[in-house]
Amino acid sequence: MFGTLVNVAAVAAGSVLGLLLHTRLPKRLSDIAFQAIGLFTLFVGVSMALKTRHILILVFSIVGGSISGELIDIDRHLTRFGEWLKGKLRLGGERFSEGLVTAFLVFCMGSMTVLGAIEEGTGRTPTLYYTKSLLDGVGSIAFSAALGIGVVFSVIPLLVYQGGLTLLARLLGSVLSDSIVAETTAVGGLMLIGLGINLLDIKKLKVINMLPALVIAALLTWAFVR
């Protein structure tokens, strides 16, 4: 879990630095930075989605996962958690929940998250998580400068999700094949494309409700690809 803790610390530190910049940025600069983040998110999403080797797994995973997530309504629960946290800590900022959810999705959807979990979960030095920490730390500066203090608190779901993956990899490391990593990465890429569309205000998608698609992709790949 040490690699995950380093990652969380890097995001927290970068977010605080971004907040200091946020208070000094004119609104027009904040807006253009937000649009740039949206474009970058679209680019990363497309590059990840193209990693799929089995298009049917990608389709069934994203459709099935979206339906499952909508029935559970993960988006509502995570947004309510963000609003509850905002109220408890008496924090301002109308984009608190948006910053929390957006940063969590970007920091957790890449292949480095899964591969890093396998690396650390199987007892090796978490080199990938150290590298990811550097990237996420820099990214969190930009996100918190554009979206505010909610980005700082994205470390809570980040710790739960990434730490949980590491513990799962410790138990099931031999089952997590290259194919499973590739297909879950591709599904994560589709989710990031949706997130980029949200950030650019093209259309509001409930991207967080698509999270079960990652599990479905892993199960389908394990069952039919090997």
Q: What would you report as the Rg, rounded to the nearest angstrom? A: 17 Å
Number of helices: 10
Q: Specify the structural class.
A: mainly alpha
Distance between the termini: 28 Å
- Give the quaternary arrangement of the chains: single chain
What series of H and E elements makes up the topology? Answer: HHHHHHHHHH
Low-confidence stretches: none
- Tell me the strand percentage band: under 5%
Number of distinct beta strands: 0
Number of domains: 1
Average pLDDT metric = 81
Shape: globular
Percent in helix: over 70%
Please give the largest β-sheet. Answer: none
What does this structure look like?
There is one protein chain. This protein has one domain. The longest helix has 23 residues, at about 25-50. Helix content is about 75%, strand content about 0%. The mean pLDDT is about 80. It has helices at about 1-20, 25-50, 55-70, 75-90, 95-110, 110-120, 125-145, 155-170, 180-200, 210-225. The chain has 10 helices and no strands. α2 packs antiparallel against α7.
Write a compact overview of the structure shown:
It contains ten helices and no strands.
Provide tags for this entry.
226 residues; mainly alpha
Write the layout of secondary structure elements.
Elements: H1 2-22, H2 27-49, H3 55-72, H4 74-88, H5 96-108, H6 111-121, H7 127-147, H8 155-172, H9 178-199, H10 212-224
Helix pairs in contact: 1-7, 1-8, 2-7, 2-9, 3-9, 3-10, 4-5, 5-7, 5-8, 6-7, 6-8, 9-10
